[in-house]
From TrEMBL:
<keyword id="KW-0106">Calcium</keyword>
<dbReference type="GO" id="GO:0020037">
    <property type="term" value="F:heme binding"/>
</dbReference>
<comment type="similarity">
    <text>Belongs to the peroxidase family. Ascorbate peroxidase subfamily.</text>
</comment>
<dbReference type="InterPro" id="IPR019793">
    <property type="entry name" value="Peroxidases_heam-ligand_BS"/>
</dbReference>
<dbReference type="Pfam" id="PF00141">
    <property type="entry name" value="peroxidase"/>
</dbReference>
<dbReference type="GO" id="GO:0006979">
    <property type="term" value="P:response to oxidative stress"/>
</dbReference>
<protein>
    <recommendedName>
        <fullName>peroxidase</fullName>
        <ecNumber>1.11.1.7</ecNumber>
    </recommendedName>
</protein>
<dbReference type="InterPro" id="IPR010255">
    <property type="entry name" value="Haem_peroxidase_sf"/>
</dbReference>
<feature type="disulfide bond">
    <location>
        <begin position="100"/>
        <end position="130"/>
    </location>
</feature>
<dbReference type="InterPro" id="IPR002016">
    <property type="entry name" value="Haem_peroxidase"/>
</dbReference>
<dbReference type="GO" id="GO:0140825">
    <property type="term" value="F:lactoperoxidase activity"/>
</dbReference>
<keyword id="KW-0408">Iron</keyword>
<keyword id="KW-1015">Disulfide bond</keyword>
<keyword id="KW-0349">Heme</keyword>
<feature type="binding site" description="axial binding residue">
    <location>
        <position position="93"/>
    </location>
    <ligand>
        <name>heme b</name>
    </ligand>
</feature>
<feature type="signal peptide">
    <location>
        <begin position="1"/>
        <end position="19"/>
    </location>
</feature>
<keyword id="KW-0560">Oxidoreductase</keyword>
Amino acid sequence: MAVIVFWPLIAAFIATTQRSATPSMRIDFYDQTCPNAEKIIFAEVQKILRRPEFKNKATFEIPRPTDHIDKILRLFAQRGFTARETVALLGGHSIGFISCAFIRDRIDKVDNATDPYIPQDFHDELSRRCQNRNNNVSMMDPEQLSSSSSPLRSRFGTHYYESLTRRRGLLFSDMELMAHEQTAAVVEEYASDDDGSTFRRDFITALVKMSNLVTLTGSQGEVRLNCSVPLNS
């Protein structure tokens, strides 16, 4: 779950800021100095998450796909995030892919009292796309995007929130944003924002705040001359 949440947030942040922020936020900025940057980071994250102590801690502190809104807000609040910032950060689910294994339980449940959000037509669609639980489902809704006259960049995030208002969120935890008066109001605000500027502003602010959590200072960590070569190698 940690990797699923982490990478869409990073990719979304880059996609959101590449035209408006400093040059170092451009996707191709590190092509010359560290062409394998993304591969290195991904490999290191995978290596860490294979260690049981890190995996258990990561999954303990990060909301699960089946969590209810009270737990989601509590976990984010423990890190200093408001309800609005929580809704903004979950907008990172706008892009990327998710394994059908994470939504298979929604498909298998037939009792609407257990999962009251999923409409029958959406249930049938997910069933078709996830006949194999190893399949991946796009977080983006191609039909919704193609029917919109808004530019793709301005649709980052907004289509995710629009999907929630139509009860078509992929994860149960996503749909839980509509179960709380405060978070539902933010979802509605982002969904109705034509150019997506309100969401992008909030997302950038919240993600910068997240990037400052547990930062390494002083003698912690290392500053590399070549980011792909550890200093002690």
